[in-house]
Structures are given as C-alpha cells and as structure tokens.
Amino acid sequence: MLTDVELVPLHALSYLYYELQSGVQIVQSSEIVGTATASQYERQGEVDMIEARQAATVVALHELGYPTRAIPDGVIVYQPEAGSPAARGLAVGDVVTAVDGREVRTIAGLATLIGDEHPGAFVTLTVRGIFTTMQHVVRLPLGEERVAGAGSSVSEVCAGVGADNSLQPVEQNGSPAACLGVYPEQDYATRGLPYRVAISSDGIIGPSAGLAFTLGLIDELDKNDLLAGLKVAATGTMSVTGQVGQVGGVAQKTIAVRNAGASVFFVPLGELHQALPHAGPHLTVMAVSSIGQAIVDLEQLGGRLTPPVRGRLRPRLARRA
To answer: Whole-model pTM?
Structure first.
C-alpha cells in the first residue's frame, strides 16, 4: 500500500479550519520548500519520484536474483543556489555530464573538477536536459557554500554538496576556492534489466514511495507471497543500494494507513516514535533501515520469497503501484 501526504497552502479562513482538524500539521512553507520556488519544488518532487521508481526497480530485481545494477551517469542539479552561476543557466533536473569536455560521472568527480578551478574562471558545462544536450558557459565566483557536514572534502563543499543551514568560507589549500553553487543528486543509468518494468505513481511526486514500490514489485514478480496475505503499507525512500531513508508526514501517514485497514506499516528507522502514538491496537508498525530488513520482517510474519536464481528470465510486464 502506497502512502502520501497532501500539502495545502493556507489562507486566513483555511488556517482556522485546519487548525481545528485532527491529523493535520501546520508548518511554515519555508520548512517544506526551503529556498526553492514553487515551480522548482514541483520539479524536485518529479525528480524524486523518478529516482524512487528507478531505485525500486533495480533493488527489487536484484533481490529476486537478477544481475541488475545502477551505474553513476552524471550529476543532477537538484537545487541551484540563488544568485549562483548555476541559477543563471541550469534548471532543476538538468544533469551535468562534463566540465570543459572532461567527463563527469559522480558528485565527487564534479566536485574535484570545480574545486580545481580558481575564482573567476570560466568553465563549459555539458548538460543533459529533458529533450537535448546543451553547453553552458559559467563564471565561477568566490562563494560561501553550505557545508556538507562532517567528513566532507573541500572540493565537495565547493561543488555545493550539503543540506544543513550553516555557512562558512570555502578554502582550498589555504586559498579561496571557486564554487558552482548547486545542491546535487547522483544520476544513475540502469544495467542488467531482464525486462521492462513500468511503475505508475498516479500523479504522486516525491521520494517517499521508494520502499513501497520495492516491496510491491518483489511481491508482484515473485511466485511466492512475500506479504503473506497481509495488508501491508510502507513509507520511506529507497537508494539504489537498498537502504531506506527518512521521509516527512509519518504521523499523518500512520493515521491514513490505520483508517485504511492495514495490518502492517513499515517506516524508516528513526521515525518509529512518530508513528506509534497513532497506530492503534490493530496496526503493527515496524521500523527498517534496508530492504533486506523489511524482507526478513515479512518472512517472520509468514511471508515467503523464492531463493534467488541468477540469470532467470520472466515475461515482460508492467507493474502498477
């Protein structure tokens, strides 16, 4: 069972209405969209959903024994920093594949190439858009970039990696460094797919369906019943390595899942405390950090998964989630 949360902009009258409703949380819009514009936030949700579908496909087929894998294939521009060179030429969802003709496959690779430049340098970015590949010439100014957190290299900071709100001057080898000014996401190309898998999200955007998609695909494609006949719901992001990440709106999703009659609800590790107060006596909430853990939990509830057989092929089909 797929879960989602509806976001509604509030005005004076609607605020009074929702303030009196149970299961509703009112937050500042900046807590949701950050510095993104409305159109950028919408596009970010679309990018998130594309990544969720891709990760679910790769991970589900891998768990079933197929040699599927995700290969780094460029760097997605997830958010151009306001006022940065990227904001003047790149859009959310663009994929940087080269700097001055030098191939870029990973975030670290982009960080290294940008970090090697000096403030004021001009670089030519090769960018894969929705319909075509383009060249963008940008000037790299000296910038204060959001730091990536503990363990981040200077070159990663210069490439704009990071999501916390602290600012610090960027230096490289004791000298000011150039910065592109983007929040990146890793782009992947899939390899080893035995057949086409299509997942419909029914207009839902965002990353939180990854775990649900993955479990749904495994259950649909395997001859055994992983879900053990139970009504199972799930929320959580899914990485191409099978790791489950945190999401928003867990409390509200728990209420919706409980009201829909589900018996099991998987949530990301670290968000169990948000779900339990709303679960009620008939909904079992289980916290997981990986697809492997979710499979083990389902097997303990009576589910069965066919042992992987490498190289097996099945007919092509589409999965509607």
So the answer is: 0.79
